[in-house]
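User: For my dataset I need records formatted as: sequence, then structure tokens, nothing else. Please produce one.
Assistant:
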Amino acid sequence: MEHPPGFTVRTSLKNPTFPDWFVSAFFLSPDSIAEFYVYSFEGEGQAADIALDTKMEVIASQSEKEVKKPAKKIKWVTIRAKDGSYIRSYEDTKFKDSGRQVFGIKYRDQKAYEKYKADYLRFKTSYEIVSNIGE
């Protein structure tokens, strides 16, 4: 997975099958105003490290769609901090056969989002390219 230069990587959830590997990671921008997220696991699992904190956060919007080929369900969620300090958005894809992928971006405000939007889209694409090898 490629991430922009200068971003700090923080691994998060360990892979339950291979404990030396991780299934999720955060990527913090050099100015700390944006953070990218990825979760990918071939089995049944939850991206528990991005769960909604109802004391501090509220769901701003959510939608979902089912796709027939390949069979999957995609859910989009945007979460806002109650104090207005950040917004985070996720695209959560559950594959029918097995597996889950989640991509996300957390940002301080719209200006921060605009600054890192192109980097975030490249970040997501870099994973998709790698994950499709051998198909």
